[in-house]
Design brief:
409 residues, alpha/beta, Alpha-Beta Plaits, Rossmann fold, 5-stranded antiparallel β-sheet, 10 helices
Length: 409
């Protein structure tokens, strides 16, 4: 049974708030270009009331439904891959194809749209346009057939793993960590927010358009905002806006460009509160960054425990973070990555919002920066594991990893 049908069985879902992004028929659709309004939002109240029944809910259906809506709203820019994941239309990503492979592709009607060199990652990316009349799904299959030894994939889109809740009256008064340096891949950050006084934020855009976003500002506040428990004054944040303001924001190619900047800046820790499918190009970029000693911290996503693992959290070497509520219970919507390293608070989290305000949010997006901030203050995984509070079965386990980082409340 699909998640959509199960959802229909819960009468309580008539009370769905903005935390679910209002995805039910007849309700308005949020701005899908913003990570905070994207596909990973889950309604807190209905999920908690559903209790154990929620384990049968394929929450991933919600995300895929929202991706389909995003594609339908932008048919000239977007398409779907074979698994229903959103991709940039008419773009095939190729990792370092040789001249012979490019010649075969050209003979078959492919053209080079652009070439992007991530030199700090020693990665060369070629973006191909398929022949006329060939959709992107067939184009990727054909490219792989023409060059079986090559690496070809879609230009997937990646979404934020969190949603908004009721507005918070004020920010928390959490004690700041020692100053540090940290990277952030997300939407744009409102650098003028009072929370960032004394924090140096260097921001670059890797997607067309841009401007402060709720999701990017929220995650940045948990990394280094005054009163939000992150790094203290004197810290430096490398904020990569991979969304911009266009429909293709959050693409794999944009994320690779941002990861290359993180390597150039020698950021010791990078937070990625974005989720999506496995992708050959993203996999190669993450592997290269991790090999250079960077600690990549990623949210596991909100597709639920029955869904397949999401990425980049599930890549080897990435620090995967799940979310818990104020009582230390796993969020029912939290995904199961290929591995779990730590847990952190992911419900009722106070964050900064563009324009100087604050809000309460929910999702694994907001658990990841709790871990990233502590690693930025002291880049030592073993030390962090020793400080983590054990949850669940004694010792490290596949649900909570090495334990809870920070306080549940």
């Amino acid at each position: 049974m699909s998640g959509r049908l199960i959802l229909g069985a819960f009468g309580a879902l008539a009370l769905v708030t903005t935390a679910v992004g209002q995805v039910l028929p007849g309700l308005p659709t949020p701005d899908l270009r913003d990570p905070l309004g994207r596909v990973d939002q889950i309604a807190r109240e209905p999920l908690e009331r559903a209790g154990g029944v929620v384990r049968a809910l394929d929450v991933a259906d919600l995300r895929l439904d929202r991706l389909t809506a995003l594609v339908r709203a932008n048919p000239r820019a977007l398409d779907l891959d074979d698994r229903g994941q959103a991709v940039v239309r008419a773009e095939v990503l190729a990792i370092a194809p040789d001249d012979e492979a490019l010649a075969r592709l050209a003979a078959a009607g492919y053209t080079v749209a652009r070439e992007e060199r991530a030199e700090a990652l020693d990665l060369r990316l070629v973006v191909l346009r398929p022949p006329g009349g060939l959709n992107v799904r067939a184009a990727v299959r054909k490219a792989r057939e023409l060059d079986p030894d090559g690496a070809y994939d879609f230009n997937h889109l990646y979404a934020g793993a969190g949603g908004a809740g009721p507005a918070a009256a004020s920010a928390g008064s959490a004690t700041a960590l020692p100053a540090g340096r940290v990277g952030l891949l997300d939407g744009g950050v409102d650098r003028k927010h009072p929370a960032f006084k004394g924090v140096e934020i260097e921001q670059r855009s890797f997607a067309p358009g841009g401007g402060p976003s709720p999701h990017g500002t929220a995650v940045a506040s948990l990394l280094a905002g005054k009163g939000y428990g992150g790094l203290g004054a004197g810290s430096r944040v490398y904020a990569a806006d991979v969304y911009g303001s266009g429909p293709t924001g959050g693409s794999a190619s944009a994320i690779v460009g941002a990861l290359n900047w993180m390597a150039q800046a020698k950021a010791p820790v990078v937070n990625v509160s974005l989720v999506g499918p496995d992708n050959a190009t993203l996999r190669a970029a993450v592997k290269a960054l991790v090999a250079r000693g960077c600690l990549v911290v990623a949210a596991v996503g909100n597709d639920g425990p029955a869904a397949p693992p999401l990425y980049p959290a599930s890549y080897p070497g990435v620090v995967a973070v799940t979310g818990v509520d104020a009582r230390g219970r796993l969020l029912p919507e939290a995904g199961k990555a290929a591995h779990i390293d730590f847990a952190a608070l992911g419900a009722g989290v106070k964050v900064a919002t563009p324009g100087g305000g604050a809000a309460s949010v929910r999702g694994t997006s907001y658990a990841a920066p709790v871990v990233a901030a502590r690693l930025a203050a002291r880049p030592d995984l073993a030390a962090l594991a020793n400080q983590a509070a054990d949850l669940g079965a004694p010792g490290p386990d596949p649900v909570f990893g090495k334990g809870l980082v920070g306080r549940a409340r």
